[in-house]
TrEMBL record:
Cofactors named for this entry: Mn(2+); Co(2+); Cd(2+)
Lineage: Bacteria, Pseudomonadati, Pseudomonadota, Gammaproteobacteria, Lysobacterales
Enzyme nomenclature, EC number: 2.5.1.54
EC category name: transferase
Gene3D superfamilies: Aldolase class I
Protein name in the entry: Phospho-2-dehydro-3-deoxyheptonate aldolase
Co-factor note (free text): Binds 1 divalent cation per subunit. The enzyme is active with manganese, cobalt or cadmium ions.
Protein family according to the UniProt entry: Belongs to the class-II DAHP synthase family.
Annotated residues for binding of Mn(2+): 52, 335, 377, 407
Keyword entries, A-Z: Cadmium, Cobalt, Manganese, Transferase
Organism: Pseudoxanthomonas spadix (strain BD-a59)
One MF annotation (Gene Ontology) recorded for this entry: 3-deoxy-7-phosphoheptulonate synthase activity
Amino acid sequence: MPTYPDAAALKAALDELARLPPLVTSWEIFALKKQLAQAQEGKRFLLQGGDCAESFSDCQSGLISNRLKVLLQMSLVLVHGLQLPVVRVGRFAGQYAKPRSTDMETRGEITLPSYRGDLVNGPEFSAAARMADPQRMIRAHSRSAMTMNFVRALIDGGFADLHHPEYWNLNWVGYSPLAAEYQQMVADIGGAVRFMETLAGVEVHNLNRIDFYTSHEALLLPYEQALTRQVPRQRGWFNLSTHYPWIGMRTAALDGAHVEYLRGVRNPIAIKIGPSVQPDQLLRLIDVLNPDDEPGRLSFIHRMGAAQIADKLPALLEAVKRDGRRVLWVCDAMHGNTESTSNGFKTRRFDNIRSEVEQSFELHAAAGTRLGGVHLELTGEDVTECTGGARELTDIDLERAYRSSVDPRLNYEQSLEIAMLIVRKQRQGRRPGS
């Protein structure tokens, strides 16, 4: 947790934040929880994706709409290929905080507080920028609200209309080797919609909008607590900063503040689990966070890395299955596959991401459990941050368009390729929901 030098200023900011309107509603939270419960049963598939860490400067209409387009296109591929409804969750509108392994950063002879995301301080390496500023929580609320408002307006205005999926294209998609396959899929869906309407003699309704939810890491507890409220005619407390908060393993100590906080809210929640997690630790977390085995309540997002998943995941799957506990298993194939290149870039190799996704399906099938979703860091921009993929990006390509200030993200093509890979993998193996 950051250290705020002015306790009075922190209290004033939190008091102001507590008076501001919430960002989501309890009925949206319940709707998402119901859909996640269906994903646990194999009746839906979760697609959760977005930026590794949002910045205040990224609150722009073009960046937001492109991010939404990518997720819509990926969900279109998944719905068409898996023949399942997709739960769409954006990793944005609140992903402004990032965990840090050390409190301080040293460059040369100068040591300053680490950059903890725009929710806390600034990325510039200066004493003024790196000081924890509580007013940034107010700015984060404002930008989260603007992002959610724009996304809702796009969706309500027909941005996701299945009568015109071609509207979701990004300008440079035509250059992708995957373009022909995707365009054929779009044509098939458009033809199917027109056929249904011709057969029925009326327009098919509810194809012009979708359900869309938001998620972020519940890392900065003062911010999360200020937006945790009670609502009329409902028992308990709700985190109204997001629909779907999660925490990482470094904040998942059983006696830690983050687990205690999540225990007390009625949102669906998720825990990131890495290769160091032991089966008994996982079972104790379930006991604390979902003692009543409530459907849709708890997700485990495993992020083992392609080299370790086959050794580390099976024991966890077996323990939860043997205990008869109800969780949604999700694969994060990004965080366990981060590496540095010889030319100084932090990257992820597409082959490793693909391998972890493929192994996840295989390991769940072998254990008699179900992989119910994927969690990805991605962007709608034409960046070069992860190597490999359809255009076979190399380490040299990273220099062309590396824009992330924190972690490398899949670009549009690579994200779409992952969606197509999931479909192919499921078709090769068991049927979804079986």
